[in-house]
Structure prediction request, 198 residues.
Amino acid sequence: LHQDPRAFIICIVARLIKQKGFNLLFPIFETILKELPVQLVVIGEGESDVMGYFQDLAARYPDKAAAHLKFDSSLPHLVFGGADATLIPSKFEPSGLTQMEAMRYGCIPIVRKTGGLADSVEDFEPASESGTGFVFETFDATALLIAVIRAFAAFGNEREWKKLQKRAMKKDFSWEYSAKKYAEMFSRAIRAHASLTL
Prediction:
């Protein structure tokens, strides 16, 4: 890609299938590329029509879109390290690891509120200086467009964006953290049970 210091770089690192919601981009993303200083980097493989869409974008907008349409185990980390945001508009997502990996690199997730994405990404609230990403609820291209524009607008405030990145990078998704939470939950359950049997 042409290096543009003003560009808001969005990445997609995923299986390129409709379950991941990438068909929501079909009616909107060309307009985003035309109207905003946004660049898109895509890594993955999947359904032919989804791959064809990204291949076509990269061919028609070579300075603004690039696609590596095959599985790669090392490129994602480089991309997360260089991109500003990652796009995960899944129709459903039982768990999801991409958003967790991206956050460790300060790459802010733009996600649909479903499954593991809803559990791991908190919506950005500038007034309270909280949140770790941009969340939209309706599985709809317009809802996704609004989330992307919200992220782009936040990116324009460098001070707030850096705070957002730091919050995302501090999120702890380790088993050590999860084990402590499970232990706390079981302790509460044991105490509640004990109080009922007295």
